Amino acid sequence: INMSSSVILRVLAASVRIADKSASLVREIMSSGELGIVDKGGQKNLQTKADTSVEKLIRASLLSLFPKLNVIGEEDEALDATADAKAGFDDDVLNKSSPPEYSKLTEDQIVVWVDPLDGTAEFTEGLLDHVTILIGFAVNGEAIGGVINQPFYNYQAGSQAKLGRTIWGLVGLGAFGWNRSEPPTGRRILITTRSHSNELVNLCLSSMSPTAVERQGGAGNKALRVIEGEADAYVFASPGCKKWDTCAPEAILRAVGGQLTDVHGSKIRYDKDIKFPNTGGVIATYRDHQTIINLVPQKVRDELKS
Ligand SMILES: Nc1ncnc2c1ncn2[C@@H]1O[C@H](COP(=O)(O)O)[C@@H](OP(=O)(O)O)[C@H]1O
Ligand SMILES: [Mg+2]
What we know:
Mg(2+) binds at residues 74, 115, 117-118, 245. The chain is an alpha+beta fold. The chain folds into 2 domains: 7-176, Fructose-1,6-Bisphosphatase, subunit A, domain 1 (Fructose-1,6-Bisphosphatase, Chain A, domain 1, 2-Layer Sandwich), CATH 3.30.540.10; 189-303, D-Maltodextrin-Binding Protein, domain 2, CATH 3.40.190. It has 9 helices and 13 strands. The chain has helices at 7-32, 49-65, 91-94, 120-125, 199-206, 219-227, 243-255, 289-293, 298-303, and strands at 38-39, 46-47, 70-73, 110-118, 132-139, 142-150, 165-170, 174-176, 189-192, 212-215, 233-236, 259-261, 282-285. The strands form 3 sheets. Strands 3-4-5-6-7-8 form a 6-stranded mixed sheet, with helices on both faces. Helix 1 runs antiparallel to helix 2 (49-65) and helix 6 (219-227) packs parallel to helix 7. It starts with 6 loop residues before the first helix and ends with a helix. The protein binds adenosine-3'-5'-diphosphate (A3P) and magnesium ion. Residues 115, 118, 219, 245 line the site of magnesium ion.
């Protein structure tokens, strides 16, 4: 390991490898057929053995290398000392040079938001390409870097296709591992929740005169669809998403010039002592963010306070 790399690049390089190991674990649990589904209460709020085992793996691996990081995860599992923490570092990340603004960051300044399995409801239903593993990094309350691993990418592409992929990014450096198809001008495909819809969510969508509305699981998955040009905006007028759902997606969007905010267009904060829910909802775009924000109806603005 190149110890001359900045801390943020080393944390990212480790996280890319940890996310890879996590993806193998998720695929193993899926093929075992024993998902161990637990209902956490509320609307489609599920947990599986994959959520808890992956969170333990990510937590143990990161903290064994960087003990001063602030790691916050969806499942809040106690640290499992038996998790094999040796994942190594990704060379492609280490070979980049850190943007100057982050070169002096220290471990304790970084807050890591972990969603071990985003799109859990869809995972239990076999909609495997909606599932992602999210590791996001925040500094001074802002999402600055992240990893999105899609463990079942290509699962319908035949047995020759390589299963799974990793997208990572850092603001000021860019994001890697994605491919954009430029959408036709004038199109407005909105992408939103599949399993957490309600009247307000639908009111917001219908007020935006969409060309089409797609309903898919996962905040990570939906952000990727926007980045790659399959959808024009991710719109979720609900307080149901949490910081671990949006930190990595927001950082990667920002790294490629996009935005992820609440429905008022205000930045989401990721300080270590912040409340978890994104009470102002979520809107993400690759471009023309303000155009979408301007279409949010007053009733939605009134009901979703930042
Ligand atoms: N009403 C709600 N209650 C609980 N979780 C919600 C929710 N609305 C959204 N979420 C969470 O936000 C993430 C994205 O939601 P969706 O897939 O519906 O777009 C999911 O994360 P997890 O799958 O990691 O739990 C989901 O559980
Ligand atoms: Mg999630």
